[in-house]
Amino acid sequence: MTVNAERIAAHRLYGSWQYRYRHRSQATGVPMTYSVYVPPEAADKRPPQVIFWLSGLTCTDENFSTKSGAQRLAAELNLLLVMPDTSPRGEAVAYDLGQGAGFYLNATVALWSSHYRMFDYLSDELPALIRQQFSTGDRQSIMGHSMGGHGALLMALRHPRRYCSVSAFAPIVNPSEVPWGRKAFGEYMGQDEKAWRQWDSCRLLADGGAQPLPVLIDQGDADPFMPEQLQPETWAALARQHQWPLTLRIQPGYDHSYFFIASFIDDHLRFHAGYLHT
Amino acid sequence: MTVNAERIAAHRLYGSWQYRYRHRSQATGVPMTYSVYVPPEAADKRPPQVIFWLSGLTCTDENFSTKSGAQRLAAELNLLLVMPDTSPRGEAVAYDLGQGAGFYLNATVALWSSHYRMFDYLSDELPALIRQQFSTGDRQSIMGHSMGGHGALLMALRHPRRYCSVSAFAPIVNPSEVPWGRKAFGEYMGQDEKAWRQWDSCRLLADGGAQPLPVLIDQGDADPFMPEQLQPETWAALARQHQWPLTLRIQPGYDHSYFFIASFIDDHLRFHAGYLHT
């Protein structure tokens, strides 16, 4: 089978490889970039299980790959990490608002709807491409930061049987109610808020129906975006109500930066490995 | 005693703090920026020992602080990390060639000599400031990458009694003989190459006289700069001749990036801790 992705970078890292690829996406209709960390071959030759990382506003696939330090423990735990970009980009996508701010949804407003289809891209196209490119186990989990934390919870709620576990750092849990989300949702889907419901992890959780998954959420209490944009307690209350097994940790003094992510990423990898490897 | 440095950033990291400071430097005559990682208080209350990290061409104090992952183990080993900038900067230093390329020396050519005094800055001013700001042990070691590897070896050779150990990633060991160094040395010190000798770690080693220090050097064999700019074997041959205890490791497949640094930084911290903590 031909793999339709061009390798644009390869760096030796922790005894194996950090790769960067570009491919023409069916879902978004433009070239998309993603990074992958492949762990060293395991002593028992078992193929690695897969974790997707979804980044926050303004990020590319490279923020996590250069700043999180996640690959050190991923190498040890035999986990393959996939780091997609946060939106379509490039000349064919000439909308400045959207670049770095795809919100992991399918847009319906005409200006955006032909390219801004990150939900379709992440649901099917990218996982299938990864399975084509690499020899992996058949399980996957998902995690993310801020807008990417919203994305991870969204993917888990919309596709509960496809993931073993989900985790997030400072997620935007209730995008239809907070300024960052309202601006993006209004642009991408128009002002009829009923259409927003399926892209809001609080609303999806409240609607019930999704099979509960193990969830870990870390939130710094010195995060300047917590009071207005993030509100993890709202999600936690709904999770309790719907019997989702959630660990919410409020981390004293931590902010919204990659220093916060680096401090706790090892806990997230061990959390996911516990479900991926059993 | 008044500490004459302004804190411009503070991020909680691995149970303690990553700081960024700006101060008006006596040595360079302009405001200088530096970052510091302070480890959590040790169980036995012993103050941390200090390691200086010198970065490479084009870097600021932030490359290492965001990309190396060093703070994780520094927290565990009770090491305080100091990350200076790589040159003077700002409006008062209106020379583009020099910014990010200070080469850790004192310039003598008039255009540069009033500000480009990184050797004086790193020898005395910054260590004294760190001791004023933080409660530390009385030992220090030094390490760096590329131009900063040259800087670390240079500092160790010029001040052998001030450091317990020295290490480097892909250092420019012989700047007076390779293009990067020859360009900078010619600019900063003029064309009389006799004046370059005291800033070249191969020449200083060949001259003898410095007390040998434990040295660890890592070099990737896929580093595109190795053949022309780096040449660690030249330094290794001189080190053997002058009874310096050197470990030179050629790392297969690794390049010149921070992925290379992240892969081996833990080894460097453990190496230094072995000398700082005995």
Can you give a write-up of this model?
Two copies of one chain form a homodimer. By secondary structure, chain A is an alpha/beta fold. Chain A has one domain: 3-Layer(aba) Sandwich (Rossmann fold), CATH 3.40.50.1820. Chain A is about 35% helix and about 20% strand. Chain A contains ten helices and nine strands. Chain A has helices at about 60-65, 70-75, 110-115, 120-135, 145-160, 180-190, 200-205, 225-230, 230-240, 260-275, and strands at about 5-15, 15-25, 30-40, 50-55, 80-85, 140-145, 165-170, 215-220, 245-250. A nine-stranded mixed β-sheet of chain A has the order 1-2-3-5-4-6-7-8-9, with helices on both faces. The two termini of chain A are about 30 Å apart.
Features:
278 residues, hydrolase (chains A, B), Rossmann fold, alpha/beta, EC 3.1.2.12 (chains A, B), S-formylglutathione hydrolase (chains A, B), 10 helices, S-formylglutathione hydrolase activity (chains A, B), 9-stranded mixed sheet, homodimer, serine esterase (chains A, B)
